[in-house]
Write a structure and sequence with these properties.
single chain, 4 domains
Length: 510
């Protein structure tokens, strides 16, 4: 959680939600408190040593600025650079690279969220009004400084240099990488992926990562999330930065316990092994067929009560019956929304963000087996998430009852006003608002702007970006219900303001 969250509500909730509906002048009314900024990281602590990876000459100075500037001054320093012409892409690149160099990607989560949230922050920025465009990125810079300080408390870690290390030839790099990943051999995989970053194209490289990101259930989906977000971030900042990022990614994917999974039969790995056998049962590798809402509902019921094996078997059966993979992805995503509705919290959040990441991998991959495996794994993971929650209260997304709400902006305001006292009522009002013809776009805009002003941790950005994106990918009959489930984790009008938003705006104005 970011330092400096205020306990006061700042601007009136009505003014805030009016701004969410499209006004651009609300920033002037934000609470001006700066809050605590935490212990600054000294230049000595951040100084590069010869064994640390160095970046391309044109980006290294910006990365060093981000690393070495104390947290209390970084926003203001970046504001100076922005006003001086430093581009959005350069700032995003510097942020991502500072993260992979300074934050250990193990466990895949916790302080490493500073890296995994970069694309989510960019996605929020991309879908924002011009007046808000920089706010998620400046927030993410502050989040990096928080994680950098946490890393130093745990013990300084940096991504090591490849200087002096022998890399495989371009011809042998792919085979060595897969052997290293299959054997969970960090040194072998690291050397090979470094060579692949130099010689392979983005598609070839990430076809491999899409598979390994879906391989096991350790770290409650964070591996798949990191794969998707790393790929998507590189598409924005440029593939010339890929080497350190894919090295960090490979290291993260090899996170395990004391037992080598290659020599064991641990629960986290069983769905993958079983699904490698199941995928051979597919009658058609293309996964294309008829859109079938009944199949979506059937899979949702299986995810609600069945085992991982039940879920994967249902996918195979429905695909072989001619159902399009899109209808089954709808079932997985709806199932994730139902789980957060039944049990809001960290595990529920990761049901949604993992389903989003695996669906992205499935629709991006050009390999038939990988596309099938991501769907099979996503289906198997939902019962595993449900089991990790323990005893959760009953609840069904398809039986959520709408509540009446005012039309237009007043309805949006009423929904976000009701989140804090009763999230279930907020969800039901969302369903009522949308079924009565309310604007999903207006509601999403309000949700994002509340995150900008009140969001305090990476999950606020990761969840909102995943949930809002998946809403638009669902079949129309599921969109309103799934968007309603987002109210179980989105920020509401009564949540405290985060003073970082005011500080970010001041930094941009100078």
């Amino acid at each position: 959680m970011a330092s400096g969250a205020s306990n006061s509500e700042g601007v009136s909730r009505r003014a805030l939600l009016s701004a969410a509906a499209g006004a651009t002048g609300a920033a002037a009314a934000w609470d001006a408190g700066l809050g605590a900024v935490g212990r600054p990281v000294s230049a000595q602590e951040a100084r590069l040593t010869p064994d640390q990876v160095r970046f391309r000459p044109e980006i290294e100075p910006l990365v060093r600025l981000i690393e070495e500037t104390p947290r209390a001054r970084l926003m203001e320093e970046i504001g100076v650079r922005i006003r001086g012409g430093t581009s959005y892409q350069q700032i995003l690149s510097g942020l991502m690279l500072a993260g992979v160099r300074n934050i250990q990607p193990r466990p895949v989560g916790f302080k490493f969220h500073a890296v995994m949230v970069v694309f989510s922050a960019h996605q929020a920025s991309l879908n924002s009004p011009d007046s808000d465009r920089w706010l998620p990125i400046l927030w993410a810079l502050d989040q990096f400084k928080s994680s950098q300080a946490d890393q130093l408390k745990a013990g300084k870690w940096t991504l090591s240099s490849l200087s002096g290390r022998e890399l495989p030839s371009a011809e042998k790099a792919r085979e060595q990488f897969t052997r290293g990943m299959d054997r969970w051999d960090e040194a072998m995989a690291d050397a090979a992926v470094a060579r692949l970053a130099q010689t392979a194209g983005p598609t070839e490289l990430f076809e491999l990562f899409f598979r390994y990101g879906a391989r096991d259930f350790r770290d409650i989906g964070h591996k798949a999330i990191y794969v998707a977000n790393a790929f998507r971030t590189l598409q924005v900042i440029g593939w010339e930065h890929s080497e350190p990022i894919v090295r960090s990614l490979a290291y993260a994917l090899l996170q395990r316990g004391n037992v080598n999974p290659a020599d064991a039969d641990e629960p986290a790995d069983r769905p993958w092994r079983k699904n490698l056998e199941r995928v051979r049962q597919l009658r058609s590798p293309r996964l294309a067929g008829r859109t079938d809402p009944n199949a979506t509902r059937e899979l949702l019921v299986t995810l609600r009560d069945g085992s991982p094996d039940d879920a994967s078997e249902a996918v195979i059966r429905l695909l072989n019956a001619g159902v399009d993979a899109g209808s089954l992805w709808d079932g997985v995503v709806a199932g994730a929304g139902e789980l957060i509705m039944r049990n809001p919290g960290l595990i529920g959040i990761h049901c949604v963000t993992t389903a989003n990441a695996l669906r992205y991998a499935g629709r991006t991959s050009g390999n038939d087996e990988t596309r099938a495996m991501t769907l099979l794994q996503a289906a198997a993971f939902m019962p595993m998430f449900r089991s990790a929650m323990g005893n959760v209260p009953p609840g069904a997304l398809d039986r959520l009852e709408p509540l009446p709400v005012a039309a237009g902006g007043a309805g949006v305001e009423e929904i976000f006003e009701s989140i804090r006292p009763d999230r279930t009522h907020a969800a039901r009002k969302t369903l009522g608002y949308l079924e009565a013809g309310g604007s999903a776009t207006e509601l999403m805009t309000a949700a994002r702007r509340l995150i900008f002003r009140k969001g305090t941790n990476s999950h606020d950005y990761k969840f909102s970006s995943a949930s809002l994106e998946d809403t638009l990918l669902l079949a129309p009959e599921w969109q309103a219900r799934f968007l309603a489930t987002a109210m179980f984790n989105l920020k509401g009008a009564r949540d405290a303001d985060n003073p970082l938003a005011t500080r970010a705006l001041s930094a941009l104005k100078g």
